[in-house]
Amino acid sequence: MGRETQARTSFLHNLLHDKTANTLAIAAASLIPMMAMVGGGIDASRYYMAAARMQAACDAGALAARRAMPTTVMTTEARTQGLNFFDQNFNDGLFGVTNRTRAYSANAQGKVTGTASGTLPSTIMAAFGYNNFPISVTCTAEVNISNSDIMFVLDVTGSMADCPATSGCNSGPGSKIVGMRAAVMSFYDTVESATSTSAQVRYGLVPYSQQVNVGFSIPRTHMVSNHTYQSRVARFNPAAYPGLNAGDPILLSDQTEWLPRTTSNFGNTNTNNYRFRTDGSAGTTARNVCTNYPNTYSVSIGGVTQTWQVFAATEFVNNQWSGGDSNERAGCRARVRKTRPATTTEVTPQFADWVYCPVTTGTANPCGVTNPAGSRPGWETVNFSSLYTGNAINMPIGSQGAMTSVSWAGCIEEPSTVLTDTYSPIPANAHDLNINLVPANETQRWKPALINAVWKREDSNGNTLNWLYQTADESRPGWTCPTPARKLADMTRTDLQSYIDGLTANGNTYHDIGMLWGARFISPRGLFATENNSAPNGEPISRHIVFMTDGAQVNNVENYSTHGIEWWDRRVTGDGNSTRERDRRAARLQAICRAAQQENITVWVVAFGTTLTQNLIDCASPGRAFQAADNATLTEQFRQIAQKIAALRLTE
To answer: Can you tell me whether residue 505 is helix, strand or coil?
Structure first.
């Protein structure tokens, strides 16, 4: 028994002092905090991953919902769009999350707020009493436009009065121009609802057809002093009495003549009125009458009052007349000078016919027509200064060459150009394609387009370049001058609505002309650089052209456009070929669109009720060409463009 007690004591003693056993116990005891640390890290990682994914889903849904809102009001469709985007990024049960919720709403300013929450079950931490973790996130999104210049280039040609589809309407509420008005206002409302209070947002408009009405926006120093028009010159026959004025005396005769007994018989051819008596006191009286004749008398002959001057040294001649009473055969004679006043017709060269030809203002004897002195004032007296100050100019194109007042509606003719089929790059001397042109000389300046000063020149055989000589009036060229364009400016909704309500549909389709002036009005360089190159807050300016057309390019060489009347002026084609004009104007459009994009201007193109041609697609900035088949789609396209122009962003 003693040995057993001793053995038991030795074992306990050895166990107590065995270091290996101590390490095992300590290691076992440390497993609990290590398990908590590792488990916490794993569950924390799961939590942060789930929370981050939920936040991203919330953000995506908020952006989608705001982009889908047509106004500042959260529609059912917009809310559904936001929820769908959330679900695509955080589906129900992701990471094991339960009790998932998500919701979107918008305030009066259109700012979207989203909330989402859920419960994340724990894994290892459940052993320590942490069974789940609540997750919640919030997000907001809004469109907020900073400094932006937006230039509408709007097709207002004749086809805009028609329906966008074959629905049977005719110039009524369903017409394309009515749809365009609604689309522009929707665009405006979308932009204004998203504009920062500190930002500058300006709007400009260029309605175009075969002309643009921009003349009153061009500084007068950049308008020409003289210009050549396809007009007419009056030709006059020489005056019958050159050098005289109306009322001056015209000599009829100056000779010795027999005089009647009484002045009332001046001009009478009856001989009895010229018999004077010779006997007694009657003879004495007769001699006294003859002696007293010298004087000046007014005599009406054939309704014209003549002046008869009877000179002294009258002669009383006996036995001048034969037959009758022998005492009544004497006559009285004297020198008589007869005159009558010159009439206006006699002293003024008379209108012969018109010479239809190219006429340069301020030029004497245009088209080789040299009229006699005293004819009406001609083209040499025409001066543009009155046109630029009073919007009217006198030109000798009225009845029989009379000076006639011609007014200016504001449409223009472009500066000089280059005849070419290649516009890449734009030729240096093609000033009419330079969107940053600031004229330095007369050839680079703009000209007033004056429809009442121009005519086509067509004889019985059709078109001709020869000068015409005729008294009849020639026909006018095709002409449309749209509503005056508006430069970039801050515009109220009322102002914009009033402007677009005044747009009317007329004329053919010259895309290059509209885009050219849209680019000139918005470019940060060129004619309007001082107005466009900076904003009051000093921040950058986003520039956009919204180009809308309802049809393919339509030109006519007998139209009066910004390059004159092409068949006669030949500034684009060189030969008046209609196909060449069409092709060159299409190429010019591309050159202008490229020039605009090189100025960092985004070009948006919408084909309305027509085919989106390759020429229109190529004009637009990449991905910025759209098509709208009807009025509702046009409004939606404009709204989407406005939202894309807006800086859609997350605010929290």
So the answer is: coil
Instruction: Report d(CA 590, CA 584) in Å as an integer.
Output: 10
List the domain boundaries for the chain: 16-143, 153-213+428-448+481-650, 224-242+350-410+451-476, 249-341
Output phi, psi for 629, to 5 deg: -85, -25
Q: Is residue 141 exposed (0-12), middle (13-18) or buried (19+ Cβ within 10 Å)?
A: buried
User: Strand 112-121 to strand 648-650: parallel, antiparallel, or no bridges (unpaired)?
Assistant: unpaired
pLDDT at 34: 52
Q: 567-574 — which CB contacts under 8 Å span 24+ positions? A: 567/456, 567/463, 568/230, 568/358, 568/456, 568/457, 568/465, 569/230, 571/416, 571/417, 572/417, 572/419, 573/419, 574/419
Q: Which amino acid is at 282?
A: A
d(CA 63, CA 59): 6
Give 387-428 as a 3 state SS string: HHHHCEEEECCCHHHCCEEEECCCEEECCCCCCCCCCCCCCC
Q: How many CB atoms lie within 10 A of CB 632?
A: 13
Rounded Cα–Cα distance for residues 314 and 505 (Å): 84
Query: Got the DSSP string for 309-372?
Result: EE-S--EEETT-S-SS-TTS-BEEEEEEEEEEEPPHHHHSPEEEEEEEEEEETT-SSGGG--PP
Does CATH place domain 153-213+428-448+481-650 in 3.30.70.20?
no
Indicate the pLDDT class of residue 28, thresholds 50, 70 and 90. very low
Q: What is the mean pLDDT of the chain?
A: 89
Per-residue pLDDT, averaged over 228-256, amounts to 94
Total Cβ atoms within 10 A of residue 460:
5
Q: Which pTM value belongs to this model?
A: 0.75
Q: Which tens digit of pLDDT belongs to each residue from 501-545?
A: 999 999 999 999 999 999 999 999 999 999 999 998 888 999 999
Q: In Å, what is the CA distance from 24 to each residue of 29, 32, 315? A: 9, 14, 178
Q: Which of 184, 149, 208, 187 is nearest to 544 (CA)?
A: 149
Q: What is the dihedral of CA 444, 448, 450, 451, to 10 degrees?
A: 70
What single-letter DSSP state applies at residue 433?
Answer: G
Is the pLDDT confidence value at 2 over 50?
no
The pair phi, psi for residue 88, each rounded to 5°, is -70, -25
The packing angle between helices 511-522 and 578-598, to 10°, is 20
Predicted confidence (pLDDT) per residue in 579-627, tens digit: 999 999 999 999 999 999 999 999 999 999 888 999 999 999 999 999 9
Q: What is the pLDDT of residue 4?
A: 47
